[in-house]
Amino acid sequence: MKDSTFNPKQQEKDISSKIVAGLERISEVFKVLLWEKAKLVGLSPIQIQILIFIAFHKRNLCNVSHLAKEFNVTKPTVSDAIRILDKKGLIIKDFSSYDSRSYSIILSDLGNDMVSKTYDFSFPLKKQIDGFSNKDLESLLGTLSQLIYKLNSNGILTVQRTCYGCKFYNKKQDIDYCNLLQKELIKKEIRLDCPEYEEK
Ligand code: SF4
To answer: Are 84 and 146 found together in one domain?
Structure first.
């Protein structure tokens, strides 16, 4: 109990605990910002997240199974959200490339309009991050990308699309290299959500 990362006394003597507590605070930011947007447009946070995800990712990731993994919710939760988005005319179910029980999800014109009203929910956070120096930003990206990869390797985070878990990634004498792009990846080029990512 005493060594809980949420115990301020534990945080005083252990920097990792302090960082975990900080990450927990930051995770609240996404909830707050999403709810603010949700109230404005009359959708739920998960419905907004699904629309934005569909807008920026390949069709093969835009289905109920993947969305459940992506957002760590159950398939019925995603199906419910999709049903409401469908009812509001914001998405279209595309049965063409799957068997008759399954479908991928694409945005309707109305859905695209909704994305243009909601995609910027994270900008207040980005604005604060923009204020850090390039050196700090590169260091933070390096730490985040390693952390995401480790959490995924340990089975805690179900989805990741970072270079470190990609079959095209190669470490050559301390140099990060992408075999697909055929180039060295300097620190700031390590990707967290690469469209070309393929699992090792
Ligand atoms: S394909 Fe993308 S994720 Fe994979 S190594 Fe290259 S840049 Fe990184």
So the answer is: no
